[in-house]
Amino acid sequence: xxxxxxxxxxxxxxxxxxxxxxxxxxxxxxxxxxxxxxxxxxxxxxxxxxxxxxxxxxxxxxxxxxxxxxxxxxxxxxxxxxxxxxxxxxxxxxxxxxxxxxxxxxxxxxxxxxxxxxxxxxxxxxxxxxxxxxxxxxxxxxxxxxxxxxxxxxxxxxxxxxxxxxxxxxxxxxxxxxxxxxxxxxxxxxxxxxxxxxxxxxxxxxxxxxxxxxxxxxxxxxxxxxxxxxxxxxxxxxxxxxxxxxxxxxxxxxxxxxxxxxxxxxxxxxxxxxxxxxxxxxxxxxxxxxxxxxxxxxxxxxxxxxxxxxxxxxxxxxxxxxxxxxxxxxxxxxxxxxxxxxxxxxxxxxxxxxxxxxxxxxxxxxxxxxxxxxxxxxxxxxxxxxxxxxxxxxxxxxxxxxxxxxxx
Length: 408
What we know:
Blueprint: H1 2-47, H2 51-62, H3 69-81, H4 85-96, H5 103-120, H6 123-133, H7 140-154, H8 157-166, H9 168-171, H10 174-192, H11 196-209, H12 214-234, H13 237-257, H14 262-272, H15 280-298, H16 301-314, H17 317-330, H18 334-347, H19 351-370, E1 374-376, E2 382-383, E3 399-401
Antiparallel strand pairs: 1-2, 1-3
């Protein structure tokens, strides 16, 4: 009997080995299946635009018992994106201080850590890291981009400009538009303290960097408008005429660069031709000519409405109606229709009919006013106000007037 048991020992050992291996395989398979399911669920949530749940699933996927450097880096990035900056800082710090990682991996961890500090508002610590990283050729582009954003966040536009210009060879042409906005920001700061000469210099720098800058031209026109009003107050009509021609030229340039900028130019033209000291009839004729040029260049509904109002004042309601109807045929929208109702109401003999039309017009106008007039071409952010930098995606020069049935 003893001999039989001795003979069975190898079989028992083999069976134990087989069962243990099978158990390991099953456990490993279950773990792998769970990880795969987390990943697939994360992708599914992303496809269904559920970013928060997608992040939870990806974090579960990356947070394994034996993470790689890449998965740890990505995990910290996800923590930062979800607002858990302290966890991101802790994870990226441990990666950056790990002596076993390669130099390039250490540099990548440092860059991620700098972004963590920026998200946490610890800008001085982020700056220290980036100033070191920007000296490393292979990290120069990433570090320079982050430094520019950091100085922008601090609103230290002079430093942002310096870094942008020093590294423009690797940042590319897209950075030039951003730098031109920094010059415009500096110009606004100078204008706030009435340093006109310095403001003009910054705006010229903006145009030198980005010749098609609309914002720089609009700011130049605002300065010319100040000079125009001052010249009129002083009785210097020769200078006033020169400044007005400067504004008209800037408006024409803006309309040629971007036809969607009609509303910006219209606001300037209204201010340019409405100082009380100017002769009304002469100025109204010049105003009409300027509006005709702007309407032809931009096809802006707001400009067309203003032009028809001027025609009604200078000529007749019938001429204004005829012009407005031609505009409606060319570019049908609610804003033009509202203006047409306003003109028709003024010619109705019956007060009740006039009141009905005006009530309908007020409803239409309320609908127009309730809608957003501006939209970011990058992220779709809607706004009733104009921003040069989108408050949502933080991209520069992407918000423009909406081209829709309501307007412009």
